Amino acid sequence: PAAEFEERMHEVGRYFAAMPTRAVWETKRLLDHAETSTLEDQLEHEAAAQNRMTRTPDFREGVAAFLEKREAVFAGQTPPTHPIRLVVADDLQRWRLTVGLRFLLALPWLLVAELWGIAVLFVSVVAWFATLINGTMPPRLHAWTSRYLRYSTHVNAFVFLAADPFPSFRGLPGTYPVDLAIEGPEPQPRWKTALRIPLAIPAAIFLYALGIAMEVVAVVAWFVALALGRLPKGLVEFMAYYLRFQAQTSAYLLLLTSTYPALSGD
Hints:
Layout: H1 2-17, H2 21-34, H3 39-53, H4 57-67, E1 84-88, H5 96-100, H6 102-134, H7 139-159, E2 178-182, H8 190-194, H9 196-228, H10 233-253
Antiparallel strand pairs: 1-2
């Protein structure tokens, strides 16, 4: 009833707020993932999620409360995550015809990415001054640059066979099996902004070496996909690692975040 709505809303809110909120979030994410994954993949994702949860303060509190026979008091603390995250929902299936002609088919998308990238270089100069002055990247510049980074990730995933469908030209979230989750503008230390290019050099060197390995893997994947009509999960996971590190390095250079690219996975 309408008269009881507000009270019930706060009741439900308090119920979830008192729970281990990270575990609630992971459960919802796994339920969403289950709609498109196989049983084998879903069990892998659930095992990985459980492994992450055992490293949270709420897990330790839950175990302690059980052993001490008391009610748990969860704090909702979460381990830090990178603000640029790769989201993969690929089914590993590949259509041999588009695999055989992949590079030629990708030319229009590569051309758009090249032209968009040139515009981003000029915009990044404006963003650098704005972030240096304000301590944060202007929201509109952040949103526009995020779309470019997401689009280039979609295109690279298509070129390297990390995904099979043709990407769109808009760079919108949720439109491709290999996608980017990008958080909004954040406060950025001015000294990190001023020294962004020299600070990024170690990550750029590692990315260059990783890119050489990625080219070799892409050639192997091309032959495997032609032969089998699908890709082994291990190959796609390596591609995902490269695409994630590439996106995080680009995001760091383009001032979307001051968080350094992570060597470990998400």
